[in-house]
Amino acid sequence: MTEKPKMIRSHLADCITNDLVDMDISVAGWIEDVRDIGKLGFVLMRDFTGMMQIIVAGDLLSQIRTIPRQSCVLVEGKVQRSKAKNVDFEIKANKISLIAKAIHPLPIDPTGRVESSTDKRIDSRALDLRDPKVSAIFRLRSSALQTIRNFLRSRRFTEVTTPKIIGTSTEGGANLFRCDYFGKNAYLAQSPQLYKEQLTVGLERVFEIGPYFRAEKSHTVRHLAEFTSVDVEAAFLDYTDVMEIVADLVRRVISDLMHLCNADLKLTWQKVTEPNTVANRNEDEAIHKMKELFGISNGSALDPLELKIEQLTYERAIDELRGQGESLSFGDDLSDMALRKLGGLHKGFYFITDWPMRLKPFYIHEKEENQELSCSFDLQFGYLELVSGGRRQHDPDKLKNRIIEQGLDPSGFVDHLRAFQWGMPPHSGWGLGFDRLMMVLTNSQNVREVVLYPRDAERLGP
Hints:
By secondary structure, this protein is of the alpha+beta class. It is 28% helix and 24% strand.
């Protein structure tokens, strides 16, 4: 019988507590720093849960002097209480094994002490993740996805997976990636819109979290060629119903991250705090600043689940922008500059509702009382559009007419229109740009900071 191999480490950094004092343990990670004071050395070593202090002396000190920083090592030793003010426990090493040597110079400084450009960090993303702030962003991203799934399932939505390779350029096609599919033209999907509408015929409430693709040569801090979208569609709900669902979802994500991932949030928001600011004494300054920016509180301890999200109609937005010097007429789209001005008037998250029909896709339903307006909404954070949604047109004849009005070929929608002959219920839904939401929640200034390996007009690697 083959002997089962032993784990190379017994404990993680965040497991080293008072209960382990005087016990022999083994830990593994990367050397971040070494303070050599002659006969004694203090080694700071990091794993994915945090930092450890290792004490070395004698031959081990000589050995550690030969190991480059950021090398991967295994340390065996005894836990003891530390006399340092900022370290509770340390490990007095009796053996150090070099697992993998790091070359020098490294392409970036993973400690974050020396700043690197976003492009350089992405080029070395695996190494970049050793920076505590960077790894915190992606732990928060993972937690937010879990919250979204749990929330939507609690509302009786079924998670689905729709094709990412499609046969027709159904939503216009100008921004679609074309590819060869066994000798046929195919396209990468830019949304699951038509599929999720069809699925309401049988499943009623569906959601999908997945990658989508847009062939836009954008060079902004908020656009990507490949992005993650959270899409929802629900039968027998109006646009105001699904608007409230997305508001509740945003509240739940913020609340869960604040309560369950507080330390990671602090790391991502630290740069916006001022050292001498006196914030709420019951919470960290970084969290206080975040709540203030989101409009959750003005120094109070209001729970994120009580976050108020303002609603304003498109027509009200136009009036307000005219008052800010913007020359706008009904039916004009809102430019970046206009949205920045609007975001200055409305703190935190806010909805713009009832957009003109001419600005919306063919599948959006008109308002009964004014058919120039649509049953639609966008969720904004400042100038940044996070969500677009609305009630869908479920009458097949009206839908076909809308397709023609927008200059699209109905023959490309045969399969879609066929599903509308099978008792298509009234339905509404939305799509949320998940990467943009994480950009907001982690105080990131560029959407590429919250995507592990972003794809844009200039980047196809690593």
